Structure formats: C-alpha cells, structure tokens
Amino acid sequence: MSRIGKLPVAIPQGVKIGLRGRTIQVEGPHGKLSFEHHPAVGVVLDQERGQVRVERPSNSKQHRALHGLTRALIQNMVRGVTEPYEKRLLIQGVGYGAALKGRRLELTVGFSHPVVFEVPEGITVELPGAQEIVIRGPDKQAVGEFAARVRRTRPPEPYNAKGIRYGRSKDMPEEIVRRKAGKAFGSGG
Known about the structure:
By secondary structure, this protein is an alpha+beta fold.
C-alpha cells in the first residue's frame, strides 16, 4: 500500500472542501483552488472526522502511483489555502535588478531591453529590495512554474556568479552556485 496515499488529509479550521463528481474544491483564508482527480481513484470526504481519504481499486502499478499523487495534490491544496507557498529569487550582477509596475514584473538582467512578465492571477509578487523577488500564492504548481520562468531568463552562471538564483524560503534552502575558475593565461612558449 502507498505510504503517502493511505494517510488521510486533515481538514484544518477555516477550510471548506467540496466534492462534486470528480472535482475537489478547497476554499480557505488565502484562496480557492479546484482539482479534477483521475477516474481510476476514489476520493471520500469524511465530514465527521474532518478528513479526506483517497482510495484505489486495485494494486496495479498505475493505481498505486495515482493513489499517492492524488493524496499529495489534495494535501498541497489544503496547505496552500491556509499558508501560501513562497519562492524567493535573488538577482546578482552589476546593474541587474527588478521593478514591479502594476501586475508586470520588469527585469533588467544584462540584455539590451528589460524583460517583462505578466504576473498570473492568484500570485502575488513583492520586491523587498531591487535584488530580491518574493513570489507567493496558494497554488504550489503555479508559484513554482512562475518562479522557474523568471529564473530561466538569466540562470546563474558558474564563472562570475551573475544571474537569478533561488534564495532561502520556508519551503526550500538557498541555491548554491558552484564557482569555476576561469582560463589561466600564461606564456604560451
């Protein structure tokens, strides 16, 4: 039996979970999320005990995989609406920086033009400083995807350590960029 899938998902105070067909809706103080689970697994909402259980029909490899996946996705939704997910990005480089103009994130990272990102709905972006970006939201996948898109603009390079890298947040440690020595010039002889 899946060790993750067999654990019930506890419903904390202030969170409402609705089950309509295959669609699970989770609503909490920080947002509202919905998810349509795979038809091969069943989701049972137990209001008395305040928990959600995921059940699978057989012990096949696909059903075992979907069992744990579905439970983990429901758990992530419940956690996200109670305590938003957060990713921090650190910008390093001379003249590099970020600016927030309404719902647009503008990066100056060594190109001839600023790189502009539209901030997706349900995600908030803060700039504690010109060299730091904090991305928050209830949807773990959306937060991670947007942070990855921003980082992909100028990933950290190992020679001068310039670029955008992940910073320390409550969900993950700081990204460490291994420095490499450049080419040593000497007399060719």
